[in-house]
Amino acid sequence: MIYLDNSATTWPKPAQVRAAAARGLSDLGANPGRGGYPASAQAAWEVYQCRKKAAALLGARGPEHVSFQPSCTQALNLVLFSQLQKGDHAVVSDLEHNAVMRPLAALAAQRGVTWTAAKTVPGDNDATLEQFRQAMGPRTKLVVCTGASNVFGIKLPVARLAALCHQYGAKLCVDAAQTAGLVPMNVEEEGLDYLCCAGHKGLYGPMGVGLLVLRDLEEPLAPLLRGGTGTQSRSLAQPEASPERYESGTLNVPGILGLSAGLDFVRRQGPESLCRRELSLLRELYRQLQAVPGAVLYTPEPDPAWAVPVLAFNLEGLPSEETGRLLAQRGFALRCGLHCAPLAHEKMGTAQQGAVRVSPSAFTKPWELESLARAVRRIAP
């Protein structure tokens, strides 16, 4: 199998990630912070080290600004359900994933929250920011946007958007599922109020662990879950302090250890270096697909100025799922359809056909994409 679905989850994982997660199961089975014995203390120390690494990579003020979540989706839900109340207005981009849109739909139904989708203009950040400006109003409390589209790779100017939000008294929540590990980010310097990350994509950790990074701790969020934290156990009130406030229940220690090793891998390689290499692979594929009769490409040639390493295409006359099925028969693992992002497909005119998505990783070889281009040429109508 030639795996090219890394926007869904990176695979294979680095050897050190696999070893660290396995060590969490074989050698470090104690519950962190729940006992006074050495194994529990060691587990708590390992969790703290991962928190420190995440804070350093993502530009948080300190490790207490980083909480572990089961997924980026849960981190987004935590922010949305805490921040948006009756009468509030939110602004999103027209590229958002259902991890944002479904919670917003629920908040609209349950609390009367309203929202507006701002039009993005790929390659023109000034025009994109103007669209966000026009979408904002006196009731806008929160702007939620993806760092980059999970279908078309289009990046958003999140630092400039944060400055715009603050001018209007709103806060910015960034869905960094597709940018963490590929695009340098600094929560503090860029003014990103809430940063939600998947641990299992560009950070190369296992599934089942995500991150919520808070720029400021002075206005705590309302937690989604309440329960045991290993601290202040005499009180029935949820702790006020971060990160315990947002981490009820037993943490996924094997996943966190794997993520810790993934953070080491990304730090050594460098997000910009990883992104440049993968975009270089996609540019060559893009040029080869341009020469395939009936191949439809939806964006300009991938470039780090505006894109992360994601490429979408179709073959004229074929549903994207059929293209994916034919390529799967030839040994290629690709994501087809709507990618849980119907707004993005509506924007790009692919809501009916969907699209075939190609997303490489640090371990993708040039010959694998050359093989894909040959296979697409063979199945083209």
Task: Provide a descriptive summary of the structure in words.
The chain is α/β, with parallel strands linked by helices and 381 residues long. The protein folds into two domains: 2-11 and 270-379, Alpha-Beta Complex (Aspartate Aminotransferase, domain 1), CATH 3.90.1150; 15-268, 3-Layer(aba) Sandwich (Aspartate Aminotransferase, domain 2). The chain has helices at residues 15-26, 38-58, 72-83, 98-111, 125-135, 158-167, 187-190, 253-269, 271-290, 320-329, 342-348, 366-379; strands at 2-3, 66-69, 89-93, 114-118, 140-146, 171-175, 194-198, 210-214, 295-297, 311-315, 332-333, 335-337, 355-358. The strands form three sheets. Strands 2-8-7-6-5-3-4 form a seven-stranded mixed β-sheet, sandwiched between helices. Strands 9-10-13-12 form a four-stranded antiparallel β-sheet, with helices on one face. It has a two-stranded parallel ribbon with strand order 1-11. The relative contact order is 0.17. Its cofactor is pyridoxal 5'-phosphate. Keywords: Aminotransferase, Pyridoxal phosphate, Transferase. This is Aminotransferase class V-fold PLP-dependent enzyme.
